[in-house]
Amino acid sequence: MDFDLIPIEQAKRRLSSLRRPIIGIFDGGSVPHRIWPYDRVLRLIKRLNERGYSVVVVGGRIELPLSQIIKKELKLPNDRFLDLIGKTSLSETAAVLSQLDLLISTDSSLLHLGYAVETKTVALFGPGIPEKWAPRGHGHIVIRKNLPCSPCTKFGYTPACPYGYRCMKEIKVDDVMAGVEKAMKGE
């Protein structure tokens, strides 16, 4: 497989061919404990498509396994789905995020980048501290499970979890869909 970067003009052209509204998804980050289970991401993409949303998945080369799983498991129409995982630089990803109607992301740098380019967000928080790091304001929704052990990150360190990262695994597709509806309304 070839995972070379594509020209930003090509990415923007493909993005403009998608039907609106367009939702981006990033399920990665430097802390593996903050990643949402892939089976949920697949169900979320399918549900978003069923509800009339187009989906763009973004991320770096480290997120390529998700890209491969999506290609294998989901057959999505070209006017409703775009896979840019591993295909854009950080600055090009920022340009893509600025064109989205909403970004669904784990607690990560791309979540903050989406907020910086004024894109609405639905943030999935587990071990991280949303009161400190989550985007704030209308159109920015935080999804978390408020478990007694979460958040557990202290001073930038996330310890090994004795509970199997329940804080991320218990976030349901319905929770995220409810967050999408709220964020799209600007709540």
Task: Describe the fold and architecture.
It is a single chain. This protein is an alpha/beta fold. The chain has a single domain (8-184), classed as Rossmann fold (3-Layer(aba) Sandwich). Helices cover 36% and strands 13% of the residues. It contains 8 helices and 6 strands, in the order H-E-H-E-H-E-H-E-H-E-H-E-H-H. It has helices at 8-16, 38-50, 64-73, 90-97, 109-116, 130-133, 166-169, 173-184; strands spanning 22-26, 54-57, 81-83, 102-106, 121-124, 140-143. Strands 3-2-1-4-5-6 form a 6-stranded parallel β-sheet, sandwiched between helices. The protein is globular, with a radius of gyration of 16 Å. The model has no long low-confidence stretch (mean pLDDT 89).
Task: Kindly list the characteristics that best describe this protein.
Rossmann fold; globular; 36% helix; alpha/beta; single chain; 187 residues
| Rg from Cα | 16 Å
Q: Please, how many helices?
A: 8
Most strands sheet: 6 strands, parallel
CATH topology: Rossmann fold
| Structural class based on helices, strands and sheet pairing | alpha/beta
Topology of this structure?
Blueprint: H1 8-16, E1 22-26, H2 38-50, E2 54-57, H3 64-73, E3 81-83, H4 90-97, E4 102-106, H5 109-116, E5 121-124, H6 130-133, E6 140-143, H7 166-169, H8 173-184
Parallel strand pairs: 1-2, 1-4, 2-3, 4-5, 5-6
